[in-house]
Amino acid sequence: MRCFQNIAKLIKSKRVGHTKNYSQSELSHLLGYKNGQFISNVERALCNIPLKMLRRVSEILDIPAEDLKMAILKDQESTLNRYLYGPAKRRNDDNIVDTDDIRDENEDGNIHQLDEHKKRKLEHDKDNEGDDEDRDDFYKKDVA
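-> structure tokens emitted (144 positions)
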């Protein structure tokens, strides 16, 4: 699972704090997306800003390029750590720390509220670790 938490926080804070007070839909349209849902997806950390849009986002929201770069690099590092050290591990500075499940923390160390689907998925995956057949059934039920 890729991490987009840092870019999500940055985009949301800059959009909400901007003098023009853009709505998610307005910002999506300014970036050329017909679907006004795009920025909502970014702010919920479901996806990243495409590389070709970074300069435009920087210009519209007055975000220094270095801030965008750092947020993306932090997310990339978090993603790599999850893949390299496994889903039950988080890398914190130079230490590897066990966690009960994959949860993202904000800068204060508080755990983000997970939506119901993510909660059910984490609980199910934790209870049925290694049981791929049950996991497939779970996802089929959730989609239906």
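The longest strand covers residues 89-92.
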